[in-house]
Amino acid sequence: MEAFKTHEIIPDVVSALPEQLLHVKFGQKDVNLGNEIEPKYVKEPPEVRYNADPNSFYTLILTDPDAPSRKNPTRREWHHWLVVNIPGPKVSESEILSEYVGSAPPQGSELHRYGFLLYKQPKKLTFDEPKHSDTDGKRGNFSAEKFAKKYDKVDTLIPVILLVAQTVCVNTSMSAEWKTRGVVPDVLEEVPPHKLTVEYPDVAIEEGTVIKPFQAKSPPCVSWEYGRGCFYTLCMIDADTPCRMKPIAKEWCHWLVVNIPEDDVDAGETIAEYVGPLPPWGNGFHRYIFLLYRQPCEIDCDCEKRLTDKTAEGRTLFSIAKFAETHAIGLPVAGNFFEAAFDTHEATSSSQEMYH
């Protein structure tokens, strides 16, 4: 239940913790406290279940406190669904005041929080409210708590559950680079929705920037727009080990940090210390890819071997997709990449076993 405070549902939407949790499911997608679900999965009304008194009536609300954005919520709350006089558990037999509208956060507004609220009515009530169809956008500046107080006989807030939906809007030119350079589909099935800011001391990385290996010898400064109180996983991989034509040892893990609080990489838990690129002679350009994942919570990585920057052991045949699946951190929310090839400047000072 701490998720209500962590994600600031308290006090942005409600003032107190709920008594119990709703069970909400969109098709095969279960809603949990703070999990991310893409808008394409929430187009239709969900299945909602709760412990109901068959002789009582209920009010159900789905509301977005982050309209148009969490940083500037001038239309808080935008209600997506409002049904009243639900007989016991039978949501389908309710009186609809506002038809269901799925989430569609505007481009650039980052993650939105969507709260489901259920109120128990003392009896069947008459509601003096305008009705909204699913094409009516006049739903902003709503307040679930004020609605409940207006009908003060709606006396018991039972549960609230948090759904965070992510808008996936990708810059066209950014998308093109990821596909032109083959990162999609060689490493990812889809282009990350946001660009990760990656800056080395004398070069800023844009999608597909070509640099010299020595320019990336030390860890870069990496930044992103973070969610308050959220944790992230950051990785850097080489998709072309030992070469792009025959990447039999891909992926080579150059850097892996988990449990990063907000955007403080130094405060994260390092699984693999940073190792700069050293592509072998004669193997052409390698693609070095940065990916950022937004974790649903802190993750336990005690089973993962810690890798120092002194050896290549344990870094080959890595799979960030498998790592993400194992630790249930979802798909990358941001990314960037550069290319680099063998450079004689590094050849005399580097061990052959570290070429990657």
Automatic annotation (TrEMBL):
Q: Which CDD domains match?
A: PEBP_euk (cd00866)
Q: Which SUPFAM superfamilies match?
A: PEBP-like (SSF49777)
Under the heading InterPro entries, the entry gives: PEBP, PEBP-like_sf, PEBP_euk, Phosphatidylethanolamine-bd_CS
Superkingdom per UniProt? Eukaryota
State the family named in the UniProt similarity comment for this chain. Belongs to the phosphatidylethanolamine-binding protein family.
What is the protein's name according to its record? Phosphatidylethanolamine-binding protein
Q: What species does this protein belong to?
A: Aromia moschata
